[in-house]
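Mods, move this if it's the wrong board.
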Amino acid sequence: MRVPMQVARVVTRFVVSPMLDPRLPVSVRRRLIDVTGYALPSPPGTRRVRGELGGVPTERVTVPGAVGPHQLLFLHGGGYSVGSARSHRGVIAHLGRAIGAPVHVPEYRLTPEHPHPAAVDDALAAYRALRTAGHDAQRIAVAGDSAGGGLAMSLLLRLREEGEELPGSVGLISPWIDLTLSSPTLQANDHTDALLNAAWLQQTAADYRGDTDPADLRPLDADLTGLPPIHVLAAMGEILLGDADALVERLAAAGAPHTYDRVPGLWHDFVLYAGTLAEADASVARLGGALRADCAPVTDR
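Not the wrong board. Structure tokens:
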């Protein structure tokens, strides 16, 4: 079932966004956000199997025909404090169909109980488990939305720091890259972003940082040379647009391979409406196609 963009915007602003209210206990926010995932459709025949990767509880999502041999490690968003494989059921399955591969969704530890670097450690453990299972690094794509996009960048830099093989492709959806919250679009796009507000980001950023210096959590300041292709997707109406813009600017300056899908008229993480919103479907299809092309065997390119 398709819904008009304006209907999705109203639902996001007046139903979904209030679920993130910092005044609600975090346990309540988690349950509410997880419930939203069940309201959005997945492709027919989608299968979900609970398991673990490297000791991290993980859901493996497969869509008929999406058999790889490449694999997708998806790091869900939610400000590092909410979100799960349940809240992202629809978009995960649609992205799996677009990339043509199974999707592995680790349930990394959340804040405020587990500040940095717990989430990065869990993402690293899951990636290493895929490698140990026999998956070539070139055949693994890593993607994430919002905080999951920032986590994907942190994982990439951690792998390089530790001298490990990097994944074949990276997809960043509405990535939250700058936990110092210095982007001017936090205020400039406050009236156009139906989902996020700066007050919520400030709380979740503080919970994630813990005792870590905020300056140490800025992938924008890292050396971005020698990375695999990075595909960035962001909405022009979201408050985190400045994070995506700044990252793409830094990637270009470093000569790093990248693409940038800057979608007009939409809000943060609009791809969560995949299966119901035409704009979300188109963006997911483009991102999945790019990830698939990067991870394809050389003979298939």
